[in-house]
């Protein structure tokens, strides 16, 4: 009986410590403290309707979308004082995202995705009218 109460109090103590650490983690990040799972699910659902995805594609894209949304939040938070660096990192992330989508989607689905979101495709800066 003594061992049971000792184990129970240890379990409660560890649970409290873990909860406190979790609150610390969320307090470091501004904005909503909930993970981006709901946003990723909504984005994946929208893509599924627009692109007629199969089940395997939906599962893979949900994971890719979660990672993209989490990294987007992280980049915006990390580089909020340097907008140029933030923009460069977001463009790099978008390129990686498109590469992952290219591995998951068929060519026709990928084309439809690019037609739906032309602003997400990074365009290289032109050197017209510039000094260099």
Automatic annotation (TrEMBL):
<keyword id="KW-0732">Signal</keyword>
<feature type="signal peptide">
    <location>
        <begin position="1"/>
        <end position="20"/>
    </location>
</feature>
<protein>
    <recommendedName>
        <fullName>LTXXQ motif family protein</fullName>
    </recommendedName>
</protein>
<feature type="region of interest" description="Disordered">
    <location>
        <begin position="109"/>
        <end position="132"/>
    </location>
</feature>
<feature type="region of interest" description="Disordered">
    <location>
        <begin position="22"/>
        <end position="45"/>
    </location>
</feature>
């Amino acid at each position: 009986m003594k061992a049971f109460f000792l184990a129970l109090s240890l379990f409660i103590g560890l649970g409290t410590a873990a909860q406190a650490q979790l609150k610390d983690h969320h307090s470091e990040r501004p904005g909503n403290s909930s993970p981006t799972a709901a946003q990723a699910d909504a984005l994946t659902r929208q893509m599924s309707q627009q692109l007629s995805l199969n089940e395997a594609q939906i599962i893979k894209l949900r994971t890719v979308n979660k990672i993209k949304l989490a990294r987007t939040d992280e980049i915006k938070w990390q580089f909020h004082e340097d907008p140029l660096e933030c923009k460069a990192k977001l463009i790099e992330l978008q390129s990686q995202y498109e590469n992952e989508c290219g591995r998951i989607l068929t060519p026709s689905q990928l084309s439809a995705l690019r037609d739906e979101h032309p602003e997400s495709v990074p365009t290289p800066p032109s050197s017209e009218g510039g000094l260099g």
